[in-house]
Amino acid sequence: MVTAKTPGGCGRKGGSHALADRRAAITHVALTTENHNVQAYLPQVLLGSKRLLTKKVMAAVTKAGPVTVVADKSSWNTSAKMVKILGMLADVLAAKAPGRQAVLLLDCAKLRLTKGVLKKARACDIMLVPIPASTTAFLQPLDSRILAVTKRSSEGVTRNCVCHVQEES
Questions:
Q1: pLDDT digits (tens, 9 = 90+) for 85-101
Q2: CA 167 – CA 127 distance, rounded (Å)
Q3: Which of 48, 43, 36 is nearest to 85 (CA)?
Q4: What is the dihedral of CA 125, 131, 27, 60, to 10 degrees?
Q5: 32 and 142 in contact (C-beta within 8 Å)?
């Protein structure tokens, strides 16, 4: 699992990143596997603020591909959201990879290692493997190579889409 924050607001004068802009970011929770038959079905989750993810923006994003969009008070991931994501992952794996052991690499952020998350992972038979700090670039090449490109390209698209919708309002 990889998460990447993408600025989503139209920005402020002088290029400052105010708290409102950081809360307007979009978090992409990307789940990946080397199994091409399963990858197409893995949940891809975008977490964003209700202020940013209007109905028009959510409709545009979901047309782009199979993605779950969660609009909440902020775009930050939480333990409760992680529990839901684990459930989504378990459902896909039960249907598309029955009998295979799921191993989920994740960083050591506290929200990913709460009792609720650990309990859900155990119930779903998903083995969680915490990655030590400062090692994600080595152990999650998707994070440092592929998502970096995705993040750069999506920043402009997201900013243009959101600004365009805001101008129409």
A1: 999 999 999 999 999 99
A2: 46
A3: 43
A4: -60
A5: yes
Q: Which residue reads 């975008």 in tokens?
A: 46
Beta strands in 21-96 (DSSP E): 26-30, 44-49, 68-72
Strand bridging mode 102-107 / 2-6: unpaired
Confidence of residue 149 (pLDDT cuts 50, 70, 90): low
Strands of 26-30's sheet in order across: 2-6, 26-30, 44-49, 68-72
User: For the segment 12-34, what is each residue's pLDDT rounded down to a tens digit?
Assistant: 444 444 555 544 577 888 888 88
How many angstroms separate the CA atoms of 76 and 35, rounded? 29
Decide: pTM greater than 0.85: no
CB 13 within 8 A of CB 165: no
Give the model's pLDDT for residue 75.
84
Strand boundaries in the chain, DSSP class E: 2-6, 26-30, 44-49, 68-72, 102-107, 126-131
